[in-house]
Amino acid sequence: MSDRPDYHFNTRAVRAGQRRTAEGEHSEPIFTTSSYVFGSAAEAAARFSGEEPGNIYSRFTNPTVRTFEERLAALEGGERCVATASGMAAILATCLGLLKSGDHIVASRSIFGTTVVMFSQYLAKFGIETSFVDLTDPDAWAAAIRKNTVFLFLETPSNPLTEVADIARLAEIAHGRDCLLVVDNCLCTPALQQPLKLGADIVIHSATKFLDGQGRCMGGAVVGSENIVGKDIFGVVRTCGPTMSPFNAWTFLKGLETLAIRMQAHSANAQQLAEFLEANTAVKAVHFPGLRSHPQYELAAAQQSAPGAVLSFELAGGKDEAWRFIDATELVSITANLGDTKTTITHPATTTHGRLTAEQKVEAGISDGLIRIAVGLEDINDLQADLQRGFDAIVKP
Prior knowledge:
Elements: H1 9-15, H2 41-49, H3 63-76, E1 80-84, H4 87-98, E2 104-108, H5 113-123, E3 129-133, H6 138-144, E4 149-155, H7 167-176, E5 180-184, H8 189-192, E6 202-206, E7 220-224, H9 228-240, H10 246-257, H11 259-278, E8 283-287, H12 297-303, E9 310-315, H13 318-328, E10 333-334, E11 344-346, H14 358-364, E12 370-374, H15 380-394
Parallel strand pairs: 2-3, 2-4, 4-5, 5-6, 10-11
Antiparallel strand pairs: 1-7, 6-7, 8-9, 9-12, 11-12
Helix pairs in contact: 1-3, 1-10, 3-10, 4-5, 4-9, 13-15
């Protein structure tokens, strides 16, 4: 009954995927077991061969992890979800499942810095080439596609500049050239945006972020069709073992139960904080999809149900001024993580995107004066007061 397709989002976030055991538990149990007992040698053989469904080994079949997978698939509108040990493991599993030597990727320049390193350094070692293009320029995406291009990869909104891609347009471009569209939906989550409904083929998540919501566990997920995710990508997890632990899966299940409520509250706080920053004369620019000054404001309003929790802003004084601002804050946490109930602040040029070359940073718009804030759920008045401490620290006497 919990998986009825006519249930609304919040009901699915609380109920989907759960199968009660004979104990009659109300909350989902954590199955802390590495293996499972078979009723007979024949049953074991049937499980291993795939002739009979059921648990085999917790590297790739665990009831708690399965519940998380089914719940997230229900929220994203996908046929299948495969959970992984981290968000980067989700991206790697997607690449290993879909690519071979000689293949080509078209990716946004505005993806997470570590993903850039994975594509440009590690995949390149195995003969897989990546072309990086402007996220918001559909013509550039179309021009970069080659005969050996397998998929287009992007994050929207991007981190940390919050640029917004037209998912439906890029899906049309990809499918017109027999390519897949892969969308990292980490910043919005399915509570605010559902890329599969807009034409994407695969959705990537770092469950570590908003799906958890309290900065407790590492995890990732890939959502899409049974044919692609359920075969090619599940095969990587089964064989190579970038596995989500049952405890982490249980934690993420608890996070999903409050996802929609949290994302609306995050977005409301972020909207007020972005307007506060935009009104300060020390700020060169504020990057946030909820501001009318944002280049893709109308697209974000049409594609997302709320602007999200991540924003960034630029100071004129470069790294020194940005660091003074960050160090003067007292309430917000200086950490590169995001998606937490606690507001975090970081300097992307020297943290999340620190491994990019100077040229790559320029291409991605990561300036030395850029500061990123992932807005939490504290009182907005306290957050504004804390950022004012940063402004007070950079005012010249």
